[in-house]
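retry 2 of 3: previous attempt timed out while embedding adenosine-5'-triphosphate. Reduced batch size to 1 and resubmitted. Inputs unchanged:
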Amino acid sequence: MATIKLLRTQNFTRQYGGLIAVNDVNFNLFEGGIHAIIGPNGAGKTTLVSLICGRTIPSSGRIYFKGKDITSMSSAKRVQEGIVYTFQVTSIFGNLSCYENVALSVQRTLKENLKGNFLSRNLGLVSENEIENEVSKNLLRVGLEGVESQIASTLPYGHQKLLEVAMGLASRPELLILDEPTQGLAESEINNLIQLIRDISKSVNVLLIEHNMGVVFNLAEHVTVMNNGSIIAEGTPSEIEENSEVQDTYLGC
Ligand code: ATP
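retry 2 succeeded.
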């Protein structure tokens, strides 16, 4: 188990009126592999990852990524830093082709990478060739080769999810956050996705929110359990399975 801390939150709290969705959470994510957050509906999982990727602002507390305080950083800036969120709320442009969808992520990323490069900036952007290569590479990586010209909304649902992963990968993440990736997928699609996530995790840190315990225990090396906005347990899948509080509040129900 790797022990280099990639991300940590310090007393992270998010309140909505009288409701505390995330309550004084000190969450640690270590470099390498797959980390899953589980917990019953309304536990605060999505709110926590929204805070991590900057879509939601904390009521109090701080967040550090690779030792740097990113608490006041916008979500767009956090993508450049390497924190990329995908799923649950789809980010696909349904009326654009699959190529165009991935190309948008590629263009944004390559342009950002060129910002410090005076010559490239003045010659005007990124070559079409470079974009094509990146799009093909990322579509291939998720097993979606040959769909470039297809309009995204006409893809089967499972393939739209894969397209979204390709878009996430095109942003060259250091931390890829997958929010309920298997939701709505058939058993065979889930098996393919498990394999894909495992492959991705060889080069990218993965943070997974997932209700399917089979998927969690199959994939994750580390599991955090939330309930009522707080972390109630952390550990390896087998430690979590044996934890009586987790069994009572979640696994047993
Ligand atoms: P699920 O597994 O059902 O997606 P979750 O663990 O992801 O649940 P959250 O979506 O983070 O839980 O919600 C935690 C609590 O915060 C819930 O009670 C939810 O109703 C509330 N909440 C989340 N977002 C908002 C919001 N924008 N405004 C008000 N309350 C919210």
